Protein backbone atom coordinates (compact mmCIF):
# COMPACT_ATOMS: atom_id res chain seq x y z
CA UNK A 1 0.00 0.00 0.00
CA UNK A 2 3.07 2.18 0.39
CA UNK A 3 3.24 4.02 -2.91
CA UNK A 4 -0.38 4.14 -4.04
CA UNK A 5 -1.16 7.73 -5.02
CA UNK A 6 -4.27 7.50 -2.81
CA UNK A 7 -2.02 7.28 0.23
CA UNK A 8 -0.13 10.48 -0.47
CA UNK A 9 -1.30 13.93 0.53
CA UNK A 10 -0.76 16.83 -1.85
CA UNK A 11 1.79 18.54 0.32
CA UNK A 12 3.70 15.28 0.73
CA UNK A 13 4.20 14.85 -3.02
CA UNK A 14 7.36 16.95 -3.52
CA UNK A 15 9.02 15.14 -0.62
CA UNK A 16 8.14 11.71 -1.91
CA UNK A 17 9.32 12.66 -5.39
CA UNK A 18 12.67 13.64 -3.98
CA UNK A 19 12.86 10.45 -2.00
CA UNK A 20 12.12 8.42 -5.10
CA UNK A 21 14.94 10.24 -6.82
CA UNK A 22 17.32 9.50 -3.98
CA UNK A 23 16.34 5.84 -3.98
CA UNK A 24 16.91 5.67 -7.71
CA UNK A 25 20.40 7.15 -7.42
CA UNK A 26 21.20 4.75 -4.59
CA UNK A 27 20.09 1.86 -6.75
CA UNK A 28 22.26 3.03 -9.64
CA UNK A 29 25.19 3.42 -7.26
CA UNK A 30 24.79 -0.14 -6.14
CA UNK A 31 24.48 -1.40 -9.70
CA UNK A 32 27.26 0.59 -11.34
CA UNK A 33 29.54 1.01 -8.38
CA UNK A 34 30.13 4.71 -9.07
CA UNK A 35 30.40 7.06 -6.14
CA UNK A 36 27.50 9.49 -6.07
CA UNK A 37 27.42 10.12 -2.34
CA UNK A 38 27.86 13.88 -2.80
CA UNK A 39 24.81 14.02 -4.99
CA UNK A 40 22.84 11.92 -2.54
CA UNK A 41 23.84 14.06 0.42
CA UNK A 42 22.85 17.21 -1.45
CA UNK A 43 19.48 15.76 -2.34
CA UNK A 44 18.88 14.54 1.19
CA UNK A 45 19.72 17.94 2.59
CA UNK A 46 17.36 19.48 0.07
CA UNK A 47 14.64 17.04 1.15
CA UNK A 48 15.13 17.82 4.83
CA UNK A 49 14.97 21.54 4.18
CA UNK A 50 11.85 21.09 2.09
CA UNK A 51 10.21 18.95 4.77
CA UNK A 52 11.04 21.40 7.50
CA UNK A 53 9.61 24.16 5.36
CA UNK A 54 6.41 22.31 4.46
CA UNK A 55 5.73 20.94 7.94
CA UNK A 56 6.34 24.19 9.75
CA UNK A 57 3.57 25.82 7.74
CA UNK A 58 0.75 23.31 8.03
CA UNK A 59 -2.75 24.74 8.15
CA UNK A 60 -5.37 23.20 10.47
CA UNK A 61 -6.89 21.53 7.42
CA UNK A 62 -3.50 20.02 6.47
CA UNK A 63 -3.29 18.62 9.98
CA UNK A 64 -6.79 17.19 9.62
CA UNK A 65 -5.58 15.36 6.54
CA UNK A 66 -2.51 14.14 8.42
CA UNK A 67 -4.66 12.98 11.34
CA UNK A 68 -6.71 10.97 8.84
CA UNK A 69 -3.71 9.88 6.79
CA UNK A 70 -4.30 6.36 5.42
CA UNK A 71 -0.81 5.40 6.56
CA UNK A 72 -1.18 6.92 10.03
CA UNK A 73 -0.51 4.38 12.79
CA UNK A 74 -3.68 3.23 14.55
CA UNK A 75 -4.35 2.21 18.13
CA UNK A 76 -3.16 -1.39 17.81
CA UNK A 77 0.08 -0.26 16.17
CA UNK A 78 0.85 1.78 19.27
CA UNK A 79 -0.36 -0.96 21.62
CA UNK A 80 2.06 -3.42 20.01
CA UNK A 81 4.97 -0.99 20.18
CA UNK A 82 4.35 0.67 23.55
CA UNK A 83 3.54 -2.34 25.72
CA UNK A 84 6.14 -4.93 26.67
CA UNK A 85 3.28 -7.41 26.72
CA UNK A 86 -0.44 -7.06 26.14
CA UNK A 87 -3.64 -9.04 25.83
CA UNK A 88 -7.04 -8.13 24.38
CA UNK A 89 -10.29 -8.64 26.28
CA UNK A 90 -13.68 -8.69 24.60
CA UNK A 91 -17.36 -7.93 24.94
CA UNK A 92 -19.73 -5.68 26.85
CA UNK A 93 -21.63 -8.61 28.49
CA UNK A 94 -24.85 -7.02 27.28
CA UNK A 95 -25.09 -7.20 23.52
CA UNK A 96 -21.92 -7.93 21.56
CA UNK A 97 -18.24 -7.25 21.03
CA UNK A 98 -17.63 -3.97 19.24
CA UNK A 99 -14.72 -4.26 16.82
CA UNK A 100 -14.32 -0.48 16.68
CA UNK A 101 -13.64 -0.27 20.41
CA UNK A 102 -10.90 -2.54 21.65
CA UNK A 103 -9.33 -2.96 25.03
CA UNK A 104 -7.31 -5.20 27.27
CA UNK A 105 -4.46 -5.34 29.72
CA UNK A 106 -0.82 -4.49 29.15
CA UNK A 107 2.55 -4.05 30.79
CA UNK A 108 4.51 -0.85 30.23
CA UNK A 109 7.75 -0.82 32.17
CA UNK A 110 6.81 -1.06 35.84
CA UNK A 111 3.17 -0.36 35.15
CA UNK A 112 0.46 -2.98 34.82
CA UNK A 113 -2.38 -1.15 33.14
CA UNK A 114 -5.67 -1.43 31.37
CA UNK A 115 -6.07 0.08 27.94
CA UNK A 116 -9.06 0.86 25.73
CA UNK A 117 -9.25 2.64 22.40
CA UNK A 118 -10.97 2.98 19.07
CA UNK A 119 -9.50 0.95 16.23
CA UNK A 120 -9.67 1.91 12.57
CA UNK A 121 -9.11 -0.48 9.69
CA UNK A 122 -6.31 -0.37 7.15
CA UNK A 123 -7.84 -1.74 3.92
CA UNK A 124 -11.42 -1.72 2.68
CA UNK A 125 -12.42 -5.00 4.31
CA UNK A 126 -10.67 -4.15 7.55
CA UNK A 127 -12.24 -0.72 7.61
CA UNK A 128 -15.70 -2.18 7.39
CA UNK A 129 -14.82 -4.75 10.04
CA UNK A 130 -13.77 -1.90 12.33
CA UNK A 131 -16.74 0.26 11.29
CA UNK A 132 -14.27 3.02 10.32
CA UNK A 133 -13.35 3.44 13.99
CA UNK A 134 -16.87 4.50 14.95
CA UNK A 135 -17.88 2.69 18.12
CA UNK A 136 -21.45 1.70 18.89
CA UNK A 137 -23.14 1.76 22.31
CA UNK A 138 -21.77 -1.72 23.03
CA UNK A 139 -18.28 -0.34 22.42
CA UNK A 140 -18.65 2.38 25.03
CA UNK A 141 -20.20 -0.11 27.46
CA UNK A 142 -17.33 -2.53 26.83
CA UNK A 143 -14.85 0.27 27.54
CA UNK A 144 -16.66 1.09 30.78
CA UNK A 145 -16.76 -2.56 31.83
CA UNK A 146 -13.00 -2.77 31.35
CA UNK A 147 -12.38 0.51 33.17
CA UNK A 148 -14.40 -0.77 36.13
CA UNK A 149 -12.19 -3.85 36.04
CA UNK A 150 -9.12 -1.64 36.31
CA UNK A 151 -10.66 0.20 39.23
CA UNK A 152 -11.40 -3.08 40.98
CA UNK A 153 -7.77 -4.14 40.68
CA UNK A 154 -6.32 -0.66 41.32
CA UNK A 155 -4.64 -0.44 37.93
CA UNK A 156 -4.24 2.73 35.88
CA UNK A 157 -6.22 3.20 32.67
CA UNK A 158 -4.91 4.31 29.29
CA UNK A 159 -7.46 5.53 26.73
CA UNK A 160 -6.27 5.72 23.14
CA UNK A 161 -8.55 7.97 21.12
CA UNK A 162 -8.82 7.77 17.34
CA UNK A 163 -12.33 8.06 15.93
CA UNK A 164 -14.09 10.23 13.38
CA UNK A 165 -17.24 10.10 15.57
CA UNK A 166 -19.43 7.64 17.42
CA UNK A 167 -21.62 5.45 15.25
CA UNK A 168 -24.95 7.12 14.50
CA UNK A 169 -26.75 4.31 12.71
CA UNK A 170 -30.34 3.33 13.48
CA UNK A 171 -29.08 0.38 15.56
CA UNK A 172 -26.85 2.65 17.63
CA UNK A 173 -29.79 4.95 18.38
CA UNK A 174 -31.98 1.97 19.25
CA UNK A 175 -29.47 0.73 21.79
CA UNK A 176 -28.90 4.19 23.24
CA UNK A 177 -25.64 5.61 21.93
CA UNK A 178 -26.35 8.85 23.80
CA UNK A 179 -26.91 7.03 27.07
CA UNK A 180 -23.77 4.94 26.61
CA UNK A 181 -21.58 8.01 26.06
CA UNK A 182 -23.28 10.02 28.81
CA UNK A 183 -22.82 7.21 31.32
CA UNK A 184 -19.14 6.91 30.42
CA UNK A 185 -18.65 10.63 30.99
CA UNK A 186 -20.32 10.38 34.37
CA UNK A 187 -18.62 7.17 35.50
CA UNK A 188 -15.18 8.20 34.27
CA UNK A 189 -15.36 11.31 36.45
CA UNK A 190 -15.58 9.09 39.56
CA UNK A 191 -12.91 6.43 38.80
CA UNK A 192 -10.47 6.12 41.67
CA UNK A 193 -7.46 5.10 39.56
CA UNK A 194 -5.24 7.20 37.27
CA UNK A 195 -6.72 7.76 33.82
CA UNK A 196 -4.50 8.93 30.97
CA UNK A 197 -6.06 9.85 27.65
CA UNK A 198 -3.94 10.02 24.51
CA UNK A 199 -5.46 11.42 21.34
CA UNK A 200 -3.65 9.67 18.51
CA UNK A 201 -5.40 10.77 15.35
CA UNK A 202 -8.96 11.99 15.09
CA UNK A 203 -10.56 13.18 18.31
CA UNK A 204 -14.05 13.24 16.87
CA UNK A 205 -16.58 14.91 19.16
CA UNK A 206 -18.65 12.93 21.68
CA UNK A 207 -17.32 9.69 20.25
CA UNK A 208 -13.83 10.68 21.36
CA UNK A 209 -14.88 12.22 24.67
CA UNK A 210 -16.76 9.00 25.54
CA UNK A 211 -13.39 7.57 26.58
CA UNK A 212 -11.73 10.96 27.04
CA UNK A 213 -12.21 12.01 30.65
CA UNK A 214 -8.74 11.65 32.13
CA UNK A 215 -6.49 13.04 34.84
CA UNK A 216 -4.12 13.82 32.02
CA UNK A 217 -5.04 14.31 28.38
CA UNK A 218 -2.16 14.26 25.92
CA UNK A 219 -2.27 14.62 22.19
CA UNK A 220 0.02 13.72 19.31
CA UNK A 221 1.25 16.78 17.45
CA UNK A 222 -0.75 16.18 14.27
CA UNK A 223 -3.88 14.81 15.92
CA UNK A 224 -7.07 16.87 15.92
CA UNK A 225 -9.69 17.29 18.62
CA UNK A 226 -12.96 18.79 17.49
CA UNK A 227 -16.59 19.14 18.43
CA UNK A 228 -17.57 18.51 14.81
CA UNK A 229 -15.61 17.59 11.67
CA UNK A 230 -14.67 20.68 9.64
CA UNK A 231 -16.87 19.45 6.78
CA UNK A 232 -19.87 19.20 9.10
CA UNK A 233 -19.29 22.64 10.54
CA UNK A 234 -18.95 24.11 7.05
CA UNK A 235 -22.16 22.41 5.93
CA UNK A 236 -24.15 23.53 8.96
CA UNK A 237 -22.80 26.98 9.80
CA UNK A 238 -21.57 28.14 6.41
CA UNK A 239 -24.12 26.06 4.49
CA UNK A 240 -21.36 24.90 2.17
CA UNK A 241 -19.29 21.75 2.84
CA UNK A 242 -16.56 23.06 0.54
CA UNK A 243 -15.63 25.73 3.05
CA UNK A 244 -14.01 23.05 5.24
CA UNK A 245 -10.58 24.69 5.18
CA UNK A 246 -12.06 27.84 6.65
CA UNK A 247 -14.05 25.80 9.18
CA UNK A 248 -10.94 23.88 10.25
CA UNK A 249 -9.29 27.23 10.88
CA UNK A 250 -12.23 28.66 12.85
CA UNK A 251 -12.83 25.56 15.01
CA UNK A 252 -9.27 25.60 16.42
CA UNK A 253 -8.86 21.84 16.24
CA UNK A 254 -5.08 21.38 16.32
CA UNK A 255 -3.10 20.06 19.28
CA UNK A 256 -1.54 23.48 19.81
CA UNK A 257 -4.96 25.13 20.00
CA UNK A 258 -6.28 22.46 22.37
CA UNK A 259 -3.28 23.12 24.60
CA UNK A 260 -3.85 26.88 24.52
CA UNK A 261 -7.54 26.40 25.35
CA UNK A 262 -6.64 24.28 28.37
CA UNK A 263 -8.34 21.17 27.05
CA UNK A 264 -5.18 19.05 26.95
CA UNK A 265 -2.06 18.94 29.12
CA UNK A 266 0.71 18.18 26.68
CA UNK A 267 1.49 17.85 23.00
CA UNK A 268 3.65 14.84 22.12
CA UNK A 269 5.89 15.76 19.17
CA UNK A 270 5.82 13.59 16.07
CA UNK A 271 8.76 12.93 13.75
CA UNK A 272 9.12 15.44 10.94
CA UNK A 273 6.56 14.54 8.30
CA UNK A 274 4.11 12.92 10.71
CA UNK A 275 3.75 9.82 12.85
CA UNK A 276 3.56 7.49 9.83
CA UNK A 277 7.11 8.35 8.76
CA UNK A 278 8.52 6.82 11.93
CA UNK A 279 6.03 4.80 13.94
CA UNK A 280 8.63 3.42 16.37
CA UNK A 281 9.87 6.87 17.28
CA UNK A 282 6.32 8.16 17.81
CA UNK A 283 5.39 5.16 19.97
CA UNK A 284 8.56 5.64 22.03
CA UNK A 285 7.83 9.32 22.65
CA UNK A 286 4.25 8.47 23.56
CA UNK A 287 5.31 5.71 25.92
CA UNK A 288 7.80 7.95 27.70
CA UNK A 289 5.17 10.68 28.13
CA UNK A 290 2.60 8.21 29.47
CA UNK A 291 5.04 6.73 31.98
CA UNK A 292 6.09 10.19 33.16
CA UNK A 293 2.47 11.18 33.79
CA UNK A 294 1.72 7.87 35.51
CA UNK A 295 4.67 8.38 37.83
CA UNK A 296 3.46 11.88 38.65
CA UNK A 297 -0.05 10.63 39.39
CA UNK A 298 1.17 7.74 41.53
CA UNK A 299 1.43 10.01 44.59
CA UNK A 300 -2.34 10.67 44.61
CA UNK A 301 -4.87 8.51 46.46
CA UNK A 302 -7.99 7.15 44.76
CA UNK A 303 -10.33 9.89 46.01
CA UNK A 304 -7.71 12.53 45.16
CA UNK A 305 -7.49 11.21 41.62
CA UNK A 306 -11.28 11.40 41.20
CA UNK A 307 -11.31 14.90 42.69
CA UNK A 308 -8.47 16.09 40.46
CA UNK A 309 -10.28 14.78 37.37
CA UNK A 310 -13.57 16.35 38.44
CA UNK A 311 -11.97 19.74 39.03
CA UNK A 312 -10.07 19.58 35.76
CA UNK A 313 -13.23 19.19 33.70
CA UNK A 314 -15.36 21.30 36.05
CA UNK A 315 -13.21 24.29 35.17
CA UNK A 316 -13.34 23.92 31.40
CA UNK A 317 -15.11 26.63 29.47
CA UNK A 318 -14.62 30.33 28.94
CA UNK A 319 -17.16 33.01 29.76
CA UNK A 320 -17.47 36.51 31.07
CA UNK A 321 -19.09 37.80 34.23
CA UNK A 322 -21.39 40.80 34.31
CA UNK A 323 -18.58 43.15 35.28
CA UNK A 324 -17.28 42.03 31.88
CA UNK A 325 -13.96 40.78 33.09
CA UNK A 326 -12.83 37.66 31.29
CA UNK A 327 -12.90 34.54 33.43
CA UNK A 328 -10.99 31.60 32.09
CA UNK A 329 -11.61 29.02 34.71
CA UNK B 1 -63.02 31.70 -1.31
CA UNK B 2 -65.49 32.30 -4.09
CA UNK B 3 -65.33 28.78 -5.46
CA UNK B 4 -66.62 27.10 -2.31
CA UNK B 5 -69.83 25.27 -3.12
CA UNK B 6 -72.36 24.30 -0.47
CA UNK B 7 -71.42 20.63 -0.76
CA UNK B 8 -68.13 21.05 -2.55
CA UNK B 9 -64.74 21.15 -0.96
CA UNK B 10 -62.46 24.08 -1.24
CA UNK B 11 -60.06 23.62 -4.08
CA UNK B 12 -56.45 23.20 -3.09
CA UNK B 13 -55.70 26.67 -4.30
CA UNK B 14 -58.55 28.16 -2.31
CA UNK B 15 -57.30 26.48 0.83
CA UNK B 16 -53.86 27.84 0.15
CA UNK B 17 -55.26 31.32 -0.24
CA UNK B 18 -57.24 30.89 2.97
CA UNK B 19 -54.09 29.92 4.81
CA UNK B 20 -52.19 32.84 3.40
CA UNK B 21 -54.99 35.11 4.54
CA UNK B 22 -54.63 33.75 8.04
CA UNK B 23 -50.87 34.11 7.91
CA UNK B 24 -51.43 37.72 7.01
CA UNK B 25 -53.63 38.34 10.03
CA UNK B 26 -52.26 40.72 12.63
CA UNK B 27 -49.81 39.08 14.99
CA UNK B 28 -50.85 37.90 18.35
CA UNK B 29 -54.38 36.76 17.59
CA UNK B 30 -54.08 33.47 15.79
CA UNK B 31 -51.46 30.77 15.42
CA UNK B 32 -51.42 28.01 12.88
CA UNK B 33 -50.54 24.52 14.09
CA UNK B 34 -47.46 23.45 12.12
CA UNK B 35 -48.53 19.81 12.27
CA UNK B 36 -52.22 19.79 11.37
CA UNK B 37 -52.56 23.36 10.01
CA UNK B 38 -55.45 24.07 12.34
CA UNK B 39 -55.90 27.76 13.00
CA UNK B 40 -55.75 28.23 16.74
CA UNK B 41 -57.01 31.22 18.69
CA UNK B 42 -54.05 32.40 20.76
CA UNK B 43 -56.00 32.80 23.98
CA UNK B 44 -57.27 29.24 23.68
CA UNK B 45 -53.77 28.05 22.84
CA UNK B 46 -52.31 29.71 25.93
CA UNK B 47 -55.05 28.21 28.10
CA UNK B 48 -54.16 24.84 26.61
CA UNK B 49 -50.47 25.34 27.62
CA UNK B 50 -49.58 25.89 23.96
CA UNK B 51 -50.74 22.46 22.86
CA UNK B 52 -52.84 22.13 19.71
CA UNK B 53 -56.36 21.14 20.77
CA UNK B 54 -56.88 19.21 17.57
CA UNK B 55 -53.74 17.10 17.04
CA UNK B 56 -51.98 17.39 20.42
CA UNK B 57 -48.93 19.05 18.83
CA UNK B 58 -46.76 20.50 21.58
CA UNK B 59 -45.51 23.94 20.55
CA UNK B 60 -42.01 24.82 21.68
CA UNK B 61 -42.09 26.92 24.83
CA UNK B 62 -39.84 29.78 25.76
CA UNK B 63 -37.92 29.17 28.97
CA UNK B 64 -39.98 31.64 31.00
CA UNK B 65 -43.31 30.31 29.67
CA UNK B 66 -42.19 26.87 30.71
CA UNK B 67 -41.45 28.13 34.22
CA UNK B 68 -44.85 29.83 34.44
CA UNK B 69 -46.55 26.58 33.41
CA UNK B 70 -44.45 24.44 35.76
CA UNK B 71 -43.45 25.95 39.08
CA UNK B 72 -45.54 27.49 41.88
CA UNK B 73 -46.58 31.06 41.12
CA UNK B 74 -43.93 33.60 41.95
CA UNK B 75 -41.55 31.05 43.45
CA UNK B 76 -38.87 31.21 40.74
CA UNK B 77 -35.67 32.94 41.66
CA UNK B 78 -33.03 32.90 38.93
CA UNK B 79 -29.33 32.58 39.62
CA UNK B 80 -26.10 32.62 37.59
CA UNK B 81 -27.49 35.62 35.69
CA UNK B 82 -24.11 37.33 35.74
CA UNK B 83 -22.62 34.87 33.24
CA UNK B 84 -22.02 36.23 29.77
CA UNK B 85 -20.88 34.44 26.66
CA UNK B 86 -17.36 35.16 25.45
CA UNK B 87 -15.83 34.39 22.08
CA UNK B 88 -12.83 32.30 23.15
CA UNK B 89 -12.05 31.09 19.62
CA UNK B 90 -12.61 34.44 17.95
CA UNK B 91 -15.07 32.56 15.81
CA UNK B 92 -16.17 34.66 12.85
CA UNK B 93 -19.48 36.51 13.30
CA UNK B 94 -20.15 34.89 16.70
CA UNK B 95 -20.70 38.18 18.53
CA UNK B 96 -23.15 39.35 15.88
CA UNK B 97 -25.05 36.06 16.15
CA UNK B 98 -25.24 36.42 19.92
CA UNK B 99 -26.47 39.99 19.69
CA UNK B 100 -29.11 38.96 17.17
CA UNK B 101 -30.45 36.18 19.40
CA UNK B 102 -30.32 38.31 22.53
CA UNK B 103 -32.56 40.76 20.73
CA UNK B 104 -34.83 38.02 19.36
CA UNK B 105 -35.28 36.04 22.58
CA UNK B 106 -34.84 38.69 25.22
CA UNK B 107 -32.45 36.34 27.00
CA UNK B 108 -28.69 36.39 27.48
CA UNK B 109 -28.14 32.71 26.82
CA UNK B 110 -29.86 29.45 25.96
CA UNK B 111 -30.20 28.19 29.55
CA UNK B 112 -32.09 29.58 32.53
CA UNK B 113 -31.47 28.16 36.02
CA UNK B 114 -32.82 29.00 39.45
CA UNK B 115 -34.50 28.00 42.67
CA UNK B 116 -38.24 27.44 42.78
CA UNK B 117 -41.01 25.51 44.43
CA UNK B 118 -43.14 22.86 42.84
CA UNK B 119 -46.19 21.85 44.84
CA UNK B 120 -44.49 23.50 47.84
CA UNK B 121 -41.39 21.33 47.44
CA UNK B 122 -38.23 23.43 47.14
CA UNK B 123 -36.36 22.51 43.98
CA UNK B 124 -33.60 23.66 41.68
CA UNK B 125 -34.74 23.94 38.08
CA UNK B 126 -33.08 24.51 34.72
CA UNK B 127 -34.86 25.26 31.46
CA UNK B 128 -33.28 25.42 28.03
CA UNK B 129 -34.35 28.13 25.60
CA UNK B 130 -34.53 26.77 22.08
CA UNK B 131 -35.18 30.24 20.71
CA UNK B 132 -31.60 31.20 21.54
CA UNK B 133 -29.26 29.75 18.92
CA UNK B 134 -31.10 26.42 18.95
CA UNK B 135 -30.33 25.94 22.67
CA UNK B 136 -26.83 24.93 21.65
CA UNK B 137 -24.56 24.13 24.60
CA UNK B 138 -21.62 26.45 24.97
CA UNK B 139 -19.57 27.39 28.03
CA UNK B 140 -22.35 29.41 29.68
CA UNK B 141 -25.01 26.74 29.12
CA UNK B 142 -22.69 24.11 30.57
CA UNK B 143 -21.66 26.30 33.48
CA UNK B 144 -25.29 27.08 34.35
CA UNK B 145 -26.30 23.40 34.27
CA UNK B 146 -23.30 22.54 36.44
CA UNK B 147 -24.09 25.32 38.91
CA UNK B 148 -27.71 24.13 39.08
CA UNK B 149 -26.45 20.68 40.04
CA UNK B 150 -23.94 22.04 42.53
CA UNK B 151 -26.63 24.23 44.08
CA UNK B 152 -28.93 21.23 44.38
CA UNK B 153 -26.16 19.32 46.15
CA UNK B 154 -25.24 22.24 48.44
CA UNK B 155 -28.88 22.90 49.39
CA UNK B 156 -29.93 19.23 49.32
CA UNK B 157 -32.72 19.90 46.84
CA UNK B 158 -34.05 17.85 43.95
CA UNK B 159 -33.25 19.04 40.44
CA UNK B 160 -35.52 19.20 37.42
CA UNK B 161 -33.97 19.91 34.02
CA UNK B 162 -36.15 20.79 31.07
CA UNK B 163 -33.70 19.83 28.35
CA UNK B 164 -33.60 21.02 24.79
CA UNK B 165 -30.71 21.46 22.43
CA UNK B 166 -29.70 21.25 18.83
CA UNK B 167 -26.24 20.17 20.00
CA UNK B 168 -22.94 21.68 20.97
CA UNK B 169 -22.23 25.36 20.27
CA UNK B 170 -19.87 24.99 17.33
CA UNK B 171 -18.74 28.60 17.71
CA UNK B 172 -17.01 27.61 20.95
CA UNK B 173 -15.35 24.59 19.38
CA UNK B 174 -13.75 22.05 21.65
CA UNK B 175 -14.74 24.03 24.76
CA UNK B 176 -18.38 23.30 24.03
CA UNK B 177 -17.57 19.58 23.78
CA UNK B 178 -16.02 19.72 27.24
CA UNK B 179 -19.35 20.91 28.67
CA UNK B 180 -20.60 17.36 28.12
CA UNK B 181 -17.97 15.97 30.48
CA UNK B 182 -18.45 18.81 32.95
CA UNK B 183 -22.23 18.48 33.25
CA UNK B 184 -22.12 14.66 33.37
CA UNK B 185 -19.54 14.73 36.14
CA UNK B 186 -21.83 17.08 38.08
CA UNK B 187 -24.63 14.49 37.80
CA UNK B 188 -22.30 12.00 39.53
CA UNK B 189 -22.09 14.42 42.46
CA UNK B 190 -25.91 14.50 42.64
CA UNK B 191 -25.97 10.72 42.71
CA UNK B 192 -23.36 10.61 45.47
CA UNK B 193 -25.54 13.01 47.47
CA UNK B 194 -28.59 10.81 46.87
CA UNK B 195 -30.64 13.62 45.40
CA UNK B 196 -33.39 13.12 42.82
CA UNK B 197 -32.64 14.37 39.32
CA UNK B 198 -35.47 14.41 36.82
CA UNK B 199 -34.91 15.12 33.11
CA UNK B 200 -37.71 16.30 30.89
CA UNK B 201 -36.74 16.04 27.24
CA UNK B 202 -38.53 18.58 25.08
CA UNK B 203 -38.49 19.12 21.35
CA UNK B 204 -35.69 18.83 20.25
CA UNK B 205 -33.09 17.24 22.54
CA UNK B 206 -30.21 16.01 20.44
CA UNK B 207 -26.46 15.50 20.13
CA UNK B 208 -24.16 16.78 22.87
CA UNK B 209 -26.89 17.46 25.39
CA UNK B 210 -28.64 14.16 24.76
CA UNK B 211 -25.30 12.36 25.07
CA UNK B 212 -24.58 13.95 28.45
CA UNK B 213 -26.68 15.19 31.38
CA UNK B 214 -30.04 14.76 29.57
CA UNK B 215 -29.57 10.97 29.48
CA UNK B 216 -28.53 10.68 33.12
CA UNK B 217 -31.70 11.50 35.05
CA UNK B 218 -33.01 9.15 37.71
CA UNK B 219 -36.23 9.45 35.79
CA UNK B 220 -36.39 10.63 32.19
CA UNK B 221 -39.63 12.04 30.85
CA UNK B 222 -40.32 13.23 27.31
CA UNK B 223 -43.01 15.43 25.86
CA UNK B 224 -45.02 13.75 23.10
CA UNK B 225 -43.63 13.88 19.60
CA UNK B 226 -40.31 15.47 20.55
CA UNK B 227 -37.21 14.91 18.43
CA UNK B 228 -34.75 13.04 20.66
CA UNK B 229 -31.55 11.45 19.50
CA UNK B 230 -27.79 11.42 19.20
CA UNK B 231 -27.13 12.55 15.65
CA UNK B 232 -28.74 15.90 14.91
CA UNK B 233 -30.77 16.04 11.73
CA UNK B 234 -28.14 17.85 9.71
CA UNK B 235 -25.29 15.74 11.05
CA UNK B 236 -27.23 12.57 10.18
CA UNK B 237 -27.79 13.87 6.67
CA UNK B 238 -24.08 14.61 6.40
CA UNK B 239 -23.29 11.08 7.53
CA UNK B 240 -25.70 9.71 4.95
CA UNK B 241 -27.93 7.95 7.46
CA UNK B 242 -30.45 5.86 5.55
CA UNK B 243 -33.33 3.47 6.23
CA UNK B 244 -34.69 5.45 9.11
CA UNK B 245 -37.88 3.99 10.59
CA UNK B 246 -40.81 6.44 10.43
CA UNK B 247 -40.75 7.31 14.13
CA UNK B 248 -36.93 7.48 14.26
CA UNK B 249 -35.55 9.70 17.03
CA UNK B 250 -38.93 10.63 18.49
CA UNK B 251 -40.12 10.38 22.10
CA UNK B 252 -42.16 7.34 21.06
CA UNK B 253 -39.07 5.67 19.53
CA UNK B 254 -37.05 6.30 22.67
CA UNK B 255 -39.82 4.89 24.88
CA UNK B 256 -40.10 1.80 22.72
CA UNK B 257 -36.36 1.18 23.02
CA UNK B 258 -36.25 1.65 26.76
CA UNK B 259 -34.33 4.91 26.78
CA UNK B 260 -36.94 6.99 28.65
CA UNK B 261 -39.39 6.23 31.44
CA UNK B 262 -42.50 7.81 30.02
CA UNK B 263 -44.12 10.27 27.69
CA UNK B 264 -46.11 12.90 29.55
CA UNK B 265 -48.38 15.42 27.86
CA UNK B 266 -47.86 18.99 28.98
CA UNK B 267 -51.11 19.31 30.92
CA UNK B 268 -50.07 16.37 33.12
CA UNK B 269 -46.45 17.45 33.54
CA UNK B 270 -46.83 19.30 36.81
CA UNK B 271 -48.79 16.54 38.54
CA UNK B 272 -46.36 13.89 37.26
CA UNK B 273 -43.34 15.83 38.47
CA UNK B 274 -45.03 16.36 41.84
CA UNK B 275 -45.56 12.61 42.30
CA UNK B 276 -41.97 11.87 41.34
CA UNK B 277 -40.66 14.54 43.69
CA UNK B 278 -42.77 13.21 46.52
CA UNK B 279 -41.23 9.79 45.90
CA UNK B 280 -37.66 11.01 45.63
CA UNK B 281 -37.66 13.94 48.01
CA UNK B 282 -38.41 11.91 51.11
CA UNK B 283 -35.23 10.02 50.32
CA UNK B 284 -33.41 13.29 49.93
CA UNK B 285 -34.78 14.53 53.24
CA UNK B 286 -33.32 11.48 54.93
CA UNK B 287 -29.88 12.50 53.71
CA UNK B 288 -30.07 15.78 55.61
Q: What report would you give on this structure?
A:
The complex is a heterodimer of chains A (329) and B (288). With 329 residues, chain A is of the alpha/beta class. Helix content of chain A is 47%, strand content 17%. Chain A is built from 14 helices and ten strands. In chain A, α1 packs antiparallel against α2, α4 packs across α13 and α10 crosses α11. Chain A is globular and about 65 Å long. Chain B is of the alpha/beta class and 288 residues long. In chain B, the strands form two sheets. In chain B, strands 3, 5, 6, 7, 8, 9, 10 and 11 form an eight-stranded mixed sheet that branches. In chain B, strands 1-2 form a two-stranded antiparallel ribbon. In chain B, α5 packs parallel to α6. The longest helix of chain B has 20 residues. The interface between A and B is large, with 62 and 65 residues.
SSE map:
The complex is a heterodimer of chains A (329) and B (288).
Chain A: H1 13-32, H2 37-55, H3 60-67, H4 75-82, E1 85-89, E2 101-108, E3 111-118, H5 124-129, H6 137-152, E4 157-163, H7 170-174, H8 177-188, E5 195-204, H9 205-209, E6 216-220, E7 224-226, H10 230-237, H11 244-251, H12 255-260, E8 266-268, H13 279-297, H14 302-314, E9 318-320, E10 326-328
Parallel strand pairs in A: 3-4, 4-5, 5-6, 5-7, 6-8
Antiparallel strand pairs in A: 1-2, 2-3, 9-10
Helix pairs in contact in A: 1-2, 4-13, 6-8, 10-11
Chain B: H1 12-23, E1 30-32, E2 39-41, H2 42-47, H3 63-70, E3 77-79, E4 84-85, H4 94-105, E5 111-118, E6 121-128, H5 139-155, E7 159-165, H6 173-192, E8 197-206, H7 207-210, E9 219-222, E10 228-229, H8 233-238, H9 251-256, E11 262-263, H10 269-287
Parallel strand pairs in B: 6-7, 7-8, 8-9, 8-10, 9-11
Antiparallel strand pairs in B: 1-2, 3-5, 5-6
